[in-house]
Amino acid sequence: MDLQHALKNLIENGTNIEYFDNGYVIQINKDIKVFEEGKKTLKKLT
Fold it and tell me: Helices (DSSP H) in the chain: which residue ranges?
């Protein structure tokens, strides 16, 4: 699964975390953050 499918599942299913090939997407309150392998920090999506 890629990042776009993980975001779609996160929004449609109302879950707090979705995994994809190179990391995971997590939702904390209204903030959506992405952790990718090889990166040291979470990336915040707006």
Answer: 3-13
Query: 26, 40 in Cβ contact below 8 A?
Result: no
Residue type, 29: N
> Is the model's pTM score more than 0.70?
yes
List the domain range (segments joined by +) for residue 22: 3-45
Give pLDDT tens digits for 2-13.
889 999 999 899
In three-state secondary structure terms, 14 is: coil
What DSSP character marks residue 29? T
Quote the number of domains for the chain: 1
